[in-house]
Amino acid sequence: MASRSLSEEDLSCPVCCDIFVNPVLLSCSHSFCSSCIQRVWENQTFKVCPVCRTTSSNDRPPVNLALRNLCESFQQERRPKSGSGSGVCRDHNEKLKLFCLDDQQLVCLVCRDSRKHANHRFCPVDEAVTDNKEILKSSLERLQEELRTSVNREQNLCKTAEDIKFHAQCIETQIKEEFEKLHQLLHDEEAARITALREEEEKRSQMMKKKIEETSKQISSLTITIRDIEEQMKAEDVSFLQRTLRPHCKEPNIFQIQTSVQV
Q: What is the band of 131 on the pLDDT scale with cuts at 50, 70, 90?
């Protein structure tokens, strides 16, 4: 029988140590009763597996349908042995010793001979359990293989995501370094232009200062000359002529005065 290949220990939850009830499957491939794992995770910030301590990627793990079916079959198989009164035909109050292959249901010996199951195929219950458990075992193995493939794919996707993030960080660092170089070049160019501008400003300021000094001297000279001429013009006629016509006179001759303004 299938119960010989799958013991109660194989179908027991690692937390409560009883047969799985509504088992769920974590990403690390370990299974637990739904209520047990939620009770363990109740005060945990990070949802970790109680067996391998791997952090779960889903705080609401999916139901392990294959394992649940195995547990239900196991429970049904051992109920008659426990004397609990199960495994009795509701119609004939006889033990369900046969399995109808056509209707896929348990039947008693009276059901087998009834019109309802005429010409149907039957087999002993233990054989039906063995056959169904083999089917479930194949399904379980297939699901476990799919789970391993999904876990590997998830790991590869996580690695790819990390590679993308690392590559983006490298590119970001490179961009920052390039722009820092550009900023330095612009800063150096700015400093060079400002220095050249200030040198040009100093040169032109000195030149203008020199011209201003020359113009100031000229203005001073012209002011003195104008004042002297105005004084001469106020003199008496004879004195005026004597002063303006005497060649030996140190004062400026009104007819010899020449003025020029340079800017």
A: confident
**CATH number, domain 1-85, options 3.30.40.10, 3.40.50.2300, 3.40.50.700, 3.40.50.150:** 3.30.40.10
**Residue labelled with tokens 């900023």:** 183
Is this structure's pTM higher than 0.85?
no
Does the pLDDT value for residue 260 go beyond 50? Answer: no
Please state, in angstroms and rounded to a whole number, the distance separating the CA atoms of residues 147 and 153. 10
Residue the block writes with tokens 């790819």: 160
pLDDT in tens, 14-66: 988 888 888 999 888 899 998 888 888 988 888 899 999 888 888 888 988 88
- Alpha-carbon distances of 167 from 89, 159, 179, rounded to whole Å: 68, 12, 18
DSSP summary character for residue 116? G
**52 phi and psi, to 5 degrees?**
-105, -5
What number of CA atoms fall less than 13 Å from residue 174's CA on the CB side?
6
Model pLDDT, residue 128: 87
| Contact of 95 with 85, CB cutoff 8 Å | no
CB burial string 21-46: b at 16+ within 10 A, e below:
eebbbbbbebbbbbebbeeebeeeee
Tokens 């233990």 appear where? Answer: 126
Cβ(5)–Cβ(138) below 8 Å: no
Q: Over the stretch 218-232, which tens digit does the pLDDT of each residue have?
A: 999 999 999 988 888
Mark out the alpha helices in the chain (DSSP H runs): 2-5, 34-41, 65-78, 109-112, 125-234, 237-245
